Amino acid sequence: MAAGKDGASGLPLGAQGATATEEVVVVAPRRTVRADGKRHNPGSAITVSAADAAFLRRGGFVVSSGAPPPPVGNGPTYAPATGPMVTKAGG
After folding, report:
1. Collapsing DSSP states into helix, strand and coil, what is residue 4?
2. Residue 51 within any structural domain of the chain
């Protein structure tokens, strides 16, 4: 899944001028980000404006450079006695 073309600034991601504060972020696992007209895969370090970094972080698309990735799981697990039960109605 790719992040939208427009960042928090309303401009394409990575299209900020040199006056904007920039941040280096890392694309989160199982995410793809398009910035500066290029596709960046999981684990890629990219430089974006601070506003775009916050926008992408809120969406779970990037993590701060050097930060551990967010935890990922396979979903809930159930034991037969405590999990959902399927019964046939009417016998």
Report:
1. coil
2. yes
